[in-house]
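note to self: dont lose this again. the chain is below, predicted strucutre after it. 309 aa total, dont forget to put it in the shared folder this time
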Amino acid sequence: MTASNDNRTATGIPRRCLLTGGTGYVGSRIRQQLQSQGWQVTELSRKPASAAGAIHHNLGDAIAPEKLSGHVALVHCAYDFRPISWKEISAINVRGSELLLRAARQAGVRQLVFISSISAYEGCRSLYGQAKLEIERVTQSLGGWSLRPGLVFGAAAGGMFGRLVEQVRQSKFIALPGRGRQRQYLVHEADLCSAVSRCLRPDLEPWQEPVTLARERAWTLRELLLEIARGLERRIVFVPVPWQLVWAGLRLGEKLRLPLKFRSDSLVSLVHQNPKPEFNSLKALGVNCRPFEFRGLSVANTPTKAKDS
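---
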């Protein structure tokens, strides 16, 4: 079905979707997917693009439900990485997301989809994971979907994956936390977008628990970096470093407000991943996540887009 013939619901209502985080790596891919399927996408952003219909919104601020009326879906991808204390993270990301999700429900938005993270699980140590976990609970209470993607990869090499690619591309010597045994689960950007599209189907009831989107085959950080190096035809040398030492350096840089490409809390997420993720995407959404293979991505000459929100 073409986009021109598929831009309304079965009841004739225009298929209009609200999207936060649309300028980030994951959000931009979701936006492109929805638009290709005939959705009219309205972005909510603190710096809205010049496109007509964009809504100015700072995550953390209240928003009037009437601003969101006329839409049938909301995909919430945005996360503000600037705050580093739990008090600020909770106020901006957790409470801000709750205000947005509840306003959407009050506005009559039927489908709610929250893009969480595989770093969110009971007992997670990172503040990022804890915040995502809290937002999941709000989403579930409102009858929405919570998706937990693993490390997202694709030809654009954005986000955390993009930073790993750029690190291998720019340096022969790679600092490796510990021995690089941290396990990573990956998901292709197209499989994530497919899952979001399925969540927006009006005939599909939301899953009663978060849906993990990732291939079951785990890669250690060391294996992942070596695979990227092979794909880029680069020779790299690992320099094992205690992860706590790296964390302390990043934390100091954050307190000094230095421009860092990597956050201390992201390192905590990297080191302390979910030891037993439940891979339920196929059961919940019919999405079978493809295996990771860097050589097939053709990203060697692709600019890295590492923006997250």
